[in-house]
Give the backbone structure.
Amino acid sequence: MMAKSWIRRWLPLAGTILLGAVLGTGVALYFVLMHDLPEIQGLETRKPQAITRLYSADRVVLDEWYHERRDPVSLAVIPKAIQQGFIATEDQSFYSHSGVDIKGLTRALIHNIRAGRAKEGASTITQQVAKNYFLSPEKTLTRKLKEAVLAIQLERRYTKDEILELYLNKIPFGSGAYGVQEAGRRFFGKELDELTLAECALIAGMPKAPSRYSPLVNKDRAKWRRDVVLRQMKEVGCISPQEYEAALSEPVITAALGARKSKAPYFTAMLRQQLEEALGDHILYQEGVEVHTTLNYRLQEFAEKAVTKGVEAVIQREGLEPGSVNGALVCLDVKTGEILAHVGGVDFYSNQYDRATMAKRQPGSSFKPFVFAAALEQGLTQSTMVLDEAVVFPQSRESSEWKPENYSGNFQGEISFRRALAYSRNIPAARLIYSLSPTRVIETARNMGIQSDLKPYLSLALGSSELTLMELTGAYAAFPNGGKWNQPNAVVEVTDRSGQVIFRPRHEKKVSLTEQEAAVMVDMLEAVVKEGSGKQAQKLPGPIAGKTGTTSQCKDALFLGFSAEFATGVWVGRDDNQSMGKVETGARAALPIWVDYMEKTLKDRSVVYFPQPNGVVSVFVDPVNGRATPAGQGVRALFIGGTEPRHGAPEAWLPEKLMEN
């Protein structure tokens, strides 16, 4: 009896002590967890990783960059069927609980204890948001408790719709897709507003086991899971029995999938490197910015087709192996230096080496215009005479002597600068650089944007120093732009998701030649097309100017040319630096590509003429000897005022030492 009395006396006290211990332990555990929990303030600024898109100037998506392929959208854009499907499947009490489903959590804990492992989760949608945004995916009791505490905090700070939006934009679906927007595109090739009820249900059922329920892996299994979701949607009243039956009968039809390929891949690869350095990986691959580029995709397609066609023609003519010859093309806006088309090779996906920006090759005779431009800066004119006869230059830096030869193997005797450039005569160019000095020519080339190392040898006049096609084309663009050089540029601006500009690159600009010198050079390069080695380009509408280039044994073939609006450079050659064939010159291998491209580019455009600034005069001259002729005879040529040839006056010559053998 005394024992029972003692128990009755002390039982309330023991219960109080036990309850206090439990509460104390719970409070202690809560504070321990709280101490280790991340701050949830500012969750709205924790945007899911998004896709960065590159746009051409004509609004074509050129490429997409991402670590996780995700395109976040507002909840208003997400179909109700997807929202309801997820809630019916993942968290039917979502709109009524406070972050944690106590009944579901208790049931899961009992099942896990019985199984002896973490078998069942029972996480609400809010808990999954807490886990995905703040916690690791490890399956431990501590993480589950942290998840529950965070979920309760989230529910106090954010609305249900805000939490659901975060959830639907974050979840992974496998196959590189994250978030419901990308799931619709990846598996069905559709935007969200195009999805059927059955497709929405299939998407809602995938996150439970993305690899298992992917329609790309097993359509039957994916259909079974879809039907489970549809049944749950019907049971909770989201859809009618009629909608349920109709959706069940719909077959699973996935989008035709192939490797996503960039449009203008050499161009976008170049941009990736530039923007990684300028902006960093986080902005490019997580923030989901828009890169607005200068590229004109219509012109890009013309360029790619022209290069492929021209390279295949060389291979067939010479009986070479497929893929042994390659090509490149760059097209710039003359006024701005913007890159309008950029082809670095025939097939990016077999060889990523960019022959427009990475490859340094000898330009051959396409370097000669810089020699003649340097001569104009020294007061010489296109009527200045030079001797096209055999010559040996002593004490060359390359050897004890240098004896240049013409490609044709013959000589034309006394000819004008205009004639020498139009017909790409090597010996006159060699005599000219000897007179000016290689250092003086290098200075002019530098002013015109050539940045590669230029060796101060006489052979520089014939293109012995290696350059990239991009810098060479940029330099040529200065001629029709009144002597003003613009650094070739590819990006207009980069904007964030709200459309705010976050990056706008600055491009170098400088005056390379006077407007008058540039106009005379344009006129001389027009003579290449009208009278000399570039006659194939005469078929194009409006005034055209340019210069061929061929290196020894036809290892490289080039044509650099321009209209008043577009400067385009073409290179054709072999990556192993072997000969393409004995006659694959710039005029034969590169010029047809250039003409093919420019013909399509200029089609249906108004003719624009080259500028003729004040301070230049037009005189009729004999194209061979440069002497003034009566009006209407010979060819019309431009001269800086005061330097034009006059009737009866003797011709101007290079210094007398260049007439010597």
Q: What stands out?
A: Confidence is low (pLDDT under 50) at residues 13-35, 657-661. The chain is about 40% helix and 15% strand. The radius of gyration is 37 Å. The longest helix spans residues 2-36.
